[in-house]
Amino acid sequence: MIAKVIVDVPSRGTDRPFDYEVPDKLAGWVEVGSRVGVPFGGRVVQGFVIGLAEFADVDRAKLKAISELLDHNPPLSPDLIELAQWISEKYCCTLTTALQAMIPAALKGKAETYVSLAEEEWSEAPSLLSEENEWVDYIRRSGGTVKLAALQERYPSEASAVKAAISDGRLLERVSIRDRLAVRKVLTVYPPSDPAAAHEALVLLPARAAKQREVLRFMLEQDEPLPLQRVVEEAGTTASTVRALADKGLITIREAEFNRDPYAGRSFQQTTAMSLTEEQTAVYDEISSAIDSGDSRVFLLHGVTGSGKTEVYLQSIQHCLQYGRQAIVLVPEIALTPQMVERFKGRFGDAVAVLHSRLSNGERYDEWRKIRERRAQVAVGARSAIFAPFERLGLIIIDEEHESSYKQEESPKYHARDVAVRRARQHGAVVVLGSATPSLESYAAAARSGVAVERLAQDAGSTSSDAASRTGANSPSGHPAASGKPPALLPMPNRVGGRPLPKVQLVDMRSELKNGNRSMFSRELHEALALRLERGQQSVLLLNRRGHSTFVMCRSCGYTALCPHCDISLTFHQKSRALRCHYCGYAELAPTQCPSCESEHIRFFGTGTQRVEEELSKLFPGIRVIRMDVDTTTEKGSHEKWLTMFGDRQGDVLLGTQMVAKGLDFPYVTLVGVIAADTSLHLPDFRAAEKTFQLLTQVAGRAGRHELAGEVIIQTYNPEHYAIAAAQQHDYASFVADELKHRQVMSYPPYCRLILITLSHEALPLLIATGEKLATLLREAVADMGLASAAGANGRFIDILGPVASPIPRMKDRYRFQCMLKYRGNIDATGILQDAIRMLSDRQGQPPVQISVDVDPQVIL
Ligand SMILES: Nc1ncnc2c1ncn2[C@@H]1O[C@H](COP(=O)(O)OP(=O)(O)OP(=O)(O)O)[C@@H](O)[C@H]1O
Ligand SMILES: [Zn+2]
Ligand SMILES: [Zn+2]
């Protein structure tokens, strides 16, 4: 049998399956999805079997054989392999990159060389056993095989002897793939298998064996095996006492797999289904009957903050599990707070596996195995949890679907929402996209389904046929569902229990300044905070830091500190008093004197959370501030610590960046303040207004979610901007209408799709020439196909913009140029692009110009 293997060598040149012979002994074991070690270019590398065939494409005699099978249970399934193929085509990445993204890092094997004593050779070759070498003894004691590296390390002076033994065949050399991280095994004590006999033995144990008797009694009380270490601790005994009992056959000690459970020892309060409100019921009914139908459907659940979306998710999952199908819940990394995890663990207990980036590789691997081995039916996680290896998915939920963190910024640059829709189609599963502020892409796509078209049309102030044709079926809107059935809109416009949305007040900071208030707090916000302190209620303060950094500038000459490798401002870190580059990690000590004019008026600019904290303590002596930002949350478990403290009312104010805006539900929060709403409004990003509106709406939604009513104060320099005005009114529809007009005029998604191509190289002239060449090739291809290249036209078009210098023109000593493809309609833009890149490849110089492709980019910067 022949296996088609994708080798783990991520380059375009090796991005195709290679044929390998499946050795007879592995014939029954190797499957599609198996991970194998194969000889490749003189090395052994890891690879994935993506197909099996009777015949090879090349001369069979020349075929090499698979050298080893790495897992008895394939880590990938045929449907995931098909999904990886789709990802590699859609996002222009190699198949191996897509495959690697689907498995935990622990399974990224690395080749290791082993040597073993050649037993068959002993009779003929001068036996190593006769030589009383210490290193030979070491190999023998280790069971006949050791890592070559271990031998080299232990016996550096024996290099020539070892080499000679390898070359004359007394030592056999073998290369094997080893996982970076293995399943952890620990010595485990099993309770007596025959308790009656053990009770009898207990009586018969001699008096001097009092310790053993105690341990036996302890083990008789256990219903489950326990790690030896714990038995020793809890029974207050020693390992040898436990062993003595095992020697008597009363208990058993064995190595057993140990699961690193990140939530071990935490008990989650069991919750049961609430009785749903009318709105929730309507939505739940739609979702559950779609699950029953077995058709793959996509829903856009547009529910205001506090409308009870999570309860709908929980009950829909419950419904899905009843029929033996599994569910994935994606939550933005930043919102994957203990509070969120608790809600799922509380309802589904151990059936929940949690996957996020703050877990160690080992923990993540064990949570993944829990899914693979069918011990978990629900996966809750960040972006990559979309690849959870379930076999029969019934439901995929994407909470806060508008979040840009669902797009991966490194290759494979996939969007989890698109992948979800694709994966759901494979399984006949239902996708629920939930948000209080849906992305314009999703909303426009949903608007194509019946009811909502009318609504969008009204919102946008035009006729419905107009709206339908603008985002219509012949013009892919950049949304995954565009090629299938459009998502159906499920609205939940009211908060649970008829609670009102909080009142939002805008404060114009320009008039504050006119009135002589130079503080970062307006009088309104100041008073509101004072009132909360007086009443013992809590406040959340958001510092919108997107596009904001604490940079250094000289007030005399205007000098700013830039990274010498990246051409962007260095960021000031107070704790270490260092200036750091966010792109390459370059750091230097902050100057006390201007390096350019030697003035001492060099200052740190920008409103960091630290400065807000300082100001708060000045204004309100004794105020308890809990600060959450990148600096205070790097440590593992720190998120949890701060939020628990705030939940226990050990803080008056929760102050932070974006991470305080999402998913939090605290009953005593009655005030939400936004220090400066506009910082994200003027970024050179066509989504700037959308992001600002979303952030303001989300953070406002943290107030007054329970009995106590809430109030929101937004400080801004642009109170009349439509994004800010709409956030004040909780008016998603009017925001969408305004924003869609802009997008249409400027021809941006959802009215077209984008592909961003970034070229980078150390040599500027080569880079520019290559960029020009690529653009020319693209323009020629487009002209050959007779495609219109007029942005703004209503039909099919493709436009090639650039090359221009990237917004960050140099990074890590490499210059950067970019081209942008804008297109609409049924056009194979990635195909055109890949052809052009292929034609370019022999003109790229040495070392080659790096070309990175971002399909449907989220970050244009
Ligand atoms: N049917 C119900 N009956 C009573 N209380 C409910 C019901 N559904 C939800 N709740 C409560 O209402 C509050 C808000 O619900 P939830 O957090 O699910 O809203 P959400 O829409 O997910 O909000 P957000 O988008 O702001 O995170 C929670 O405290 C929740 O326990
Ligand atoms: Zn200066
Ligand atoms: Zn840098």
* Uncertain residue segments: 121-125, 450-477
Number of domains: 6
Integer average pLDDT: 84
Alpha-carbon Rg, integer: 31 Å
Name the CATH homologous superfamily of the largest domain: P-loop containing nucleotide triphosphate hydrolases
Widest β-sheet, arrangement of strands: 14-15-13-16-17-12-18
Strand pairing plus helix content: what structural class? alpha/beta
Assess the beta-strand content as a share of residues: 15-25%
Instruction: Supply the number of helical segments.
Output: 26
Instruction: Describe the sheet with the most strands.
Output: 7 strands, parallel
For the record, what CATH class of the largest domain applies?
Alpha Beta
CATH architecture of the largest domain: 3-Layer(aba) Sandwich
Tell me the overall shape.
Answer: globular
CATH topology of the largest domain: Rossmann fold
Structural key phrases:
binds zinc ion, 7-stranded parallel β-sheet, 6-stranded parallel β-sheet, 861 residues, alpha/beta, binds adenosine-5'-triphosphate, GIY-YIG endonuclease, 6 domains
Please describe what this structure looks like.
With 861 residues, this protein is α/β, with parallel strands linked by helices. It has six domains: 108 residues, 3-Layer(aba) Sandwich (GIY-YIG endonuclease), CATH 3.40.1440.60; 67 residues; 73 residues, no CATH class; 220 residues, P-loop containing nucleotide triphosphate hydrolases (Rossmann fold, 3-Layer(aba) Sandwich); 249 residues, P-loop containing nucleotide triphosphate hydrolases (Rossmann fold), CATH 3.40.50; 103 residues, ACT domain (Alpha-Beta Plaits, 2-Layer Sandwich). The protein is built from 26 helices and 33 strands. A seven-stranded parallel sheet has the order 14-15-13-16-17-12-18, with helices on both faces. Helix 7 crosses helix 9. The chain starts with a strand and ends in a 6-residue tail after the last strand. About 4% of the residues have low confidence.
